[in-house]
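Might I ask for a little of your time on a matter of protein folding? Here, with my thanks, is the record as I have it:
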Amino acid sequence: MKPRIISDSSCDLPKDFLEKDGIDFSLVPLKIIVGNHEFIDDETLNPKELIAAMKAEKTATSSSCPSPEDFAAELRKNKESYVITMTSGLSGTYNSARVAKNMVLEEDDSLKISLFDTHATSPVMILMVMKLRDLIKTGDMDFDTISEKLSLYLETLNLRFLLQDLSNLVKSGRMNRVAGAVASALSIMPIFRSDDKGEIQLVTKARGIKKALSSLASMVEEKIKTQPQFPVVITHCNNLSQAEILKDLLEKRFDLKEIYIFPMHGLTTYYSNDKGLLMAF
């Protein structure tokens, strides 16, 4: 039986992404609660409708992670499963997957399940899925070897992100209201990173989108010194034009050859808000 790759819906890939490679792939959806409206983060969700609802809602919004049984249902489908989740620093999703793993192994201890907390989200998860696909397709590595190589690969990855609408962070209590208002009024755009615990840290601030995109592109420079070529994934919330500008900057400044752009699903839209850009490398 083919191995299965399982992720949560903050991995901004289409469900059929690995179909041509003959690899089973599934996304376990989170839920987003905005006022009285519950959005299920699957292929039926319209990110533009979610953005409009968040802008209209004056009170705090929230998200809800999948249950252990949601993950367990996917784990029972294959003898070998690799599970890639968003950071445990901001969500209970990893813990739900961990509980599901233990539950399913109690039912059938012949199953092989490898679980990864990315300490990040969206584009890092995409890079992990792409790497896992390539390792599986070689056909000459066993489950444990692939798991070990993927774990080492995760340690090399970085996440940077540019947020242009801070209103949802303010509503959810993740940013001071005054700081959010000042940033919006002065066109100050914060660029963040995820630390080794998967928590958000401010890296720098830029005034104006041109400087912000230039600063974001420059953040690959340190890695270039030791690794001239590596894949980059950019995910965007309703912002293809600026994602393409960022891609162009990376190509022209650093001659990077492998750059991918994907639109965000619901959960990443919820956190990054309109015009958000995330970059992993």
